[in-house]
Each structure stands twice: as C-alpha cells, then as structure tokens.
C-alpha cells in the first residue's frame, strides 16, 4: 500500500491511483466511526466483509441495469472502480423510521412508512451531513435537475431490488444511504452509483427477532458487530465458512 499513490483517505476506505486511466483502487479499512467520527473504533475483518458484500450487491445491480463504479474485486480488501467526481449529496432511502429521523421528528423507532421516503443530505463532516431540500442542491449548484432526477430514480430502483434481496434471506431493509458520481466517457458525463453498499450504510433487522445486523451495534454499544456483519454475509452466500479474523490478519501481513 505504501508504494501506491494515495489519492484520498476517508473514515472507512482509502483510494489509490488505479492501474489504468480513469480507474481507482478502493481499499476497505477496519476502522469504524459513528456520529461524524466522534466515536471511533476498530472492527477486525470489517473491511473484508464489506468489500465482499459491496462487490456482490454492485454486481447484482449491474445485472438489472443500474450504472455504478464497480469493475472487479482485486483482493480480500480491494476493488477496482471507475474514477468519478463525487456529487456532494447523500441520498437516504427510508422504509421504516429509525435513527436520526426519529430524533428530528419525534417518531417512534420501528414505525413503518406508507411508502419509501427519499431524503437528501449535504456531504459535509464539518456540518454533520445536514438534511437539505432539492432547492438547496440547485441553488448551490451541487447537482443539476437531471442529476437529481436520476439519483432519485436510481435510489428507488435500488430500494426495490435490495428490499426483495434482503427479504429473501429474512432481513428487513430499514434504510440505507447512497452516493453518486459523475463519470466521464469522452465528452459524455453520466450519473452512476458510487461508494459502497454494506452494513456500514444500511440498517438491517432480522425479520423474526428484530435483531440489528448493521453498524447500529457499534453506534449503540450493543456488541457483536462482527458476528452481525458476518451473518449478513453468510445469508447472502458470501464467505459462508470463512474465519474473518484469520483472513483479516493474513491480509494485514500481506499489506505490510
């Protein structure tokens, strides 16, 4: 890793210059953060699991025609992705009230919503990723009308697909966040899905027990974070018999 040209390091991933033009290598870390990095920790093996889950989901989304940045998985922690200009707007899709919306609006957690709710947030750790309206996006030129329409459209399609995917393995998709970017093909600029889709950015509840299988276990000091992440991977058929801690330790030695 040290010999590569590092482009950016975030809370959960590191981006390196890719081997071909317009490509990036995305490295998944074990770092865990919550509340805009006010709470920090390390979950050994998280990066391995999130890499594989994200690979699986992006592959399935490609199959149904949703454009995204994923090209291929390179190793246990790395993906080759398309280089995009990230749009500074997070899309949150909610099917059940949980997390920040309950605090903001006084809604009881677990309340089913009559239809999926799409929210926009300005991507800014400094200001706590505040909820914004479409008008903010247009006024401050974070995205144009066509890009907003495409992000909204793709977000609902992803929600439909993921809701069915997770329901098939006994999991409720409570909510999730997405990021999009501008990908340049010659003179054309297209809006594509970027970042990752994993238990770090999705709320996932067991349908029978209501057990949380996502980063809320870390946020709320519930413990059992890696067991929950690994359970999601097992149900998806990813690394069903692997010892994630052993894999992570082995990969760390290779990276060093």
Question: What can you tell me about this protein's structure?
Answer:
- Strands 8, 9, 10, 11, 12 and 13 form a 6-stranded antiparallel beta sheet that branches. A 5-stranded antiparallel beta sheet has the order 1-2-3-7-6.
- The model has no long low-confidence stretch (mean pLDDT 93).
- The protein is 31% helix and 33% strand.
- The protein is globular, with a radius of gyration of 18 Å.
- Helix 1 packs parallel to helix 6.
- 34% of the residues are buried.
- It has helices at residues 46-63, 100-105, 134-139, 145-167, 216-219, 225-235, 244-255, and strands at 6-9, 13-17, 23-28, 31-34, 39-42, 70-73, 78-82, 85-96, 112-122, 131-132, 171-185, 188-194, 202-206.
- The protein has 2 domains: 6-83 and 224-250, Phosphorylase Kinase, domain 1, CATH 3.30.200.20; 85-206, ATP-grasp fold, B domain (D-amino Acid Aminotransferase, Chain A, domain 1), CATH 3.30.470.
- The protein has 256 residues and is an alpha+beta fold.
- It is built from 7 helices and 13 strands.
Measure the end-to-end span.
Answer: 8 Å
Relevant CATH superfamily of the largest domain: ATP-grasp fold, B domain
CATH architecture of the largest domain: 2-Layer Sandwich
Residue share in β-strands: 25-35%
| Helical percentage | 25-40%
Rough outline: globular
In round numbers, the mean pLDDT is 93
Radius of gyration: 18 Å
Stretches with pLDDT under 50, minimum 5 residues: none
SS-based structural class? alpha+beta
Q: Order of helices and strands, N to C? A: EEEEEHEEEHEEHHEEEHHH
Count of separate structural domains: 2
CATH topology name of the largest domain, in short, is: D-amino Acid Aminotransferase, Chain A, domain 1
